[in-house]
Design goal:
The chain is an alpha/beta fold and 157 residues long. It is built from six helices and nine strands, in the order E-E-H-E-H-H-E-H-E-H-E-E-E-E-H. It has a single domain, classed as Glutaredoxin (3-Layer(aba) Sandwich). Strands 5-4-3-8-9 form a five-stranded mixed beta sheet. The N and C termini lie far apart (29 Å).
């Protein structure tokens, strides 16, 4: 299953580091960014989380929370946040249900070996709960800035 722009965003409810929870119900009526990344504290994932964290004040100004999701547990997220002083919400999807619902669990290939893994992908959800913009197979440099620009455009429309 894979969602595309214009589709309703899948419902979710996930634990966050620090003992909290976040879900589509608590975000209802406001736009948000949800992005999926392979693993805490790996080079690309760290750069992506730091980029979104550096822009958190800009996202906050337009009322758009950013949620990063991986299969890592909440304890791993807590260490990742502390080590890199991350400001965004990190949610744990150890069972992978939300990752699959958004179509971010895909077959990958490395050195000719096929395996299942998380496609680095980001979704901007509008206040009606629909996918306003989807980025798949994300390249990290400049991505958080692209998402912020799209979120600003959405917030002013």
């Amino acid at each position: 299953m894979s969602v595309k722009e214009g589709d309703p965003a899948p419902a979710f409810e996930l634990p966050t580091d620090g003992g909290g929870r976040i879900g589509s119900a608590s975000l209802a009526g406001k736009p948000y960014v949800i992005y999926f990344y392979p693993k805490d504290d790996t080079p690309g994932c760290t750069k992506e989380a730091i980029s979104f964290s550096c822009l958190k004040a800009e996202f906050d100004k337009i009322g758009v929370p950013v949620i990063g999701v991986s299969k890592d547990g909440v304890a791993s997220h807590g260490k990742f946040r502390k080590k890199h002083d991350l400001a965004i919400t990190l949610a744990s999807d150890e069972e992978g249900k939300t990752i699959e619902a958004f179509g971010a669990w895909v077959e990958k290939s490395m050195y000719g070996k096929k395996y299942m893994g998380i496609d680095r992908s980001t979704f901007l959800v509008d206040k009606e709960g629909r996918i306003a913009k989807a980025w798949r197979n994300v390249k990290v440099p400049g991505h958080a800035e692209q998402v912020l620009e799209a979120a600003k455009a959405l917030a002013t429309s």
